[in-house]
Specification:
Blueprint lengths: L3 H7 L7 H10 L5 E4 L6 H11 L10 E4 L3 H14 L5 E4 L5 H8 L5 E4 L1 H9 L10 E4 L2 H6 L3 H10 L5 E6 L16 E4 L10 E7 L6 H11 L4 E4 L3 H13 L5 E3 L5 H12 L5 E4 L14 E4 L6 H8 L9 E7 L14 E2 L14 E6 L9 H11 L7 E6 L4 E6 L3 H7 L4 E2 L2 E2 L2 E3 L3
Parallel strand pairs: 1-6, 1-7, 2-4, 2-5, 3-4, 5-6, 8-13, 8-14, 9-11, 9-12, 10-11, 12-13
Antiparallel strand pairs: 15-17, 15-20, 16-17, 18-19
């Protein structure tokens, strides 16, 4: 079995933080674990390492199950586990993905299975998953799963695990009660939430608008923020659409993210945000936690959060770990700072000449082939640098998925790159390559 120091080297991490060490220690003892820790604190690595402690490599079958509230969170956990290079098989199942492909993957049972409640329940009901060998379960972002209405599916899944020995529940907010269907007993609570639930490096500001419509004030704010990374939260998809239409009319580069988009669109949006070819993300609360996105400099509450928990999760996208960040509350004509916000925000003035932020230096290029086609990062690097005449510094982050790949390329070099590699092949295959549109 691979050691923790080896895993950390594979992940390019020097040491575990206190929370991760606490999860490892608790995992060595009997009893269940309730882990309370902020978004971005490294919970995923903590419980994955704890899972590995209980894996018996001499046995076959699924030994650990992770239930997640969203497909993006499941994919993120799967990617982290693969980067750990344990040599153990992992599969991820979620809505929007081919059930046929998932069934085929499950024919040779993975050691670790990750999935959303509905899809996991589907596979169990149809006999595609043998639950007899599962000894450990993680309910990640458990409070969010309940909020999304997954109680029935989760209850069915847990009831199906007759040989379960350990449960780990994680949450980024305090939980007053744990439902009986989880079967949690003799649990230890690891609470790493700040008492005031506010990142120490987070500044809170308000932008007061003179009318009920906030669009004009919003444009003024992003002009003032300039070329910084920002995530804009709305309560409804319609608001996301309105803001996006305005930004598109003004030629401002941005991306949108919400539950109404197809899975491949959502994946592409997050990739572009990670690689820096998009700096402005307009979203619903679907992006408030459990997503693999980089440190954000600004969180903009275009529509006010309904509860304190929502406010905490949104702000958790910035000022993580040692970084700093700013959260802006856009207040309409008759809106006030919610009562649950105890800190007095700083009033931000929007005045002066408005200059729209410049487009990012990066542009995302897609390659219509991926891991299943035996394409890897080095294949793309070789093609883009040798045939496409790019310099190393003109090629950014590359992500390879099952059937597609995406690479950040200097925006000024994209046209010449695509011209030079137009008739080139990758591993003797003709592959479509172009600009990844929104």
């Amino acid at each position: 079995m691979i050691t923790t120091p080896e895993i950390l080297r594979n992940l390019k991490i020097e040491t575990l933080n206190k929370m991760q060490e606490a999860v490892l220690d608790a995992g060595k003892k009997s009893g269940d674990i309730l882990l309370l820790s902020p978004t971005g604190s490294g919970k995923t690595l903590g419980f994955l390492l704890s899972i590995l402690q209980g894996i018996d490599t001499s046995k076959e079958g699924i030994q650990a199950l992770i239930i997640v509230p969203s497909r993006e969170l499941g994919i993120q956990i799967e990617q982290v586990f693969k980067q750990m290079k344990t040599g153990l098989k992992v599969n991820c199942c979620y809505g929007g993905h081919s059930t046929k492909i998932e069934k085929q993957n499950l024919e040779q049972a993975p050691t670790l299975l990750i999935g959303t409640p509905g899809r996991l329940a589907f596979h169990i009901r149809n006999g595609y998953v043998n639950t007899d060998t599962i000894r450990l379960i993680v309910l990640d972002e458990f409070d969010k799963a309940l909020e999304f209405g997954f109680k029935e599916d989760m209850s069915f899944i847990i009831f199906s695990l007759k040989n379960l020995q350990k449960r780990i529940l994680t949450s980024a907010t305090n939980m007053t009660a744990i439902p009986d269907f989880t079967g949690v007993k003799n649990s230890v609570t690891l609470n790493f939430l700040a008492k005031n639930n506010k990142p120490v490096a987070l500044k809170l500001k308000t932008v007061q608008t003179e009318t009920a419509d906030k669009l004009d004030a919003f444009i003024g704010l992003i002009c003032k923020l300039g070329a910084t990374s920002s995530i804009v939260f709305c309560n409804h998809r319609e608001a996301v659409g309105r803001i996006s239409d305005l930004l598109r009319d003004k030629g401002v580069d941005h991306a949108i993210f919400h539950g109404g988009l197809e899975q491949d669109e959502r994946e592409k949006t997050l990739i572009k945000f990670r690689n820096g070819s998009t700096r402005l993300l307009i979203t619903t609360d679907l992006a408030s936690r459990g997503l693999d996105i980089p440190e954000i400099e600004n969180v903009i509450h275009y529509q006010l959060p309904a509860t304190e928990d929502v406010f905490i999760h949104r702000n958790g996208r910035t000022a993580r770990m040692q970084a700093t960040g700013t959260a802006y509350l856009l207040l309409g004509e008759k809106e006030y700072v919610p009562a649950f916000i105890k800190e007095k925000p700083i009033a931000e003035t929007i005045s002066g000449k408005r200059i729209l932020p410049e487009n990012p230096i990066w542009c995302t290029v897609y390659v219509a082939a991926g891991k299943k086609d035996k394409i890897n990062k080095m294949d793309i690097v070789g093609l883009f640098l040798q045939k496409g005449k790019l310099q190393k510094e003109e090629l950014g982050l590359i992500e390879v998925l099952d059937h597609t790949a995406y690479a950040a390329v200097n925006r000024n070099k994209v046209d010449s790159l695509l011209t030079l590699i137009k008739n080139e092949k990758i591993k003797n295959k003709s592959v479509k390559i172009g600009i990844a549109t929104a």
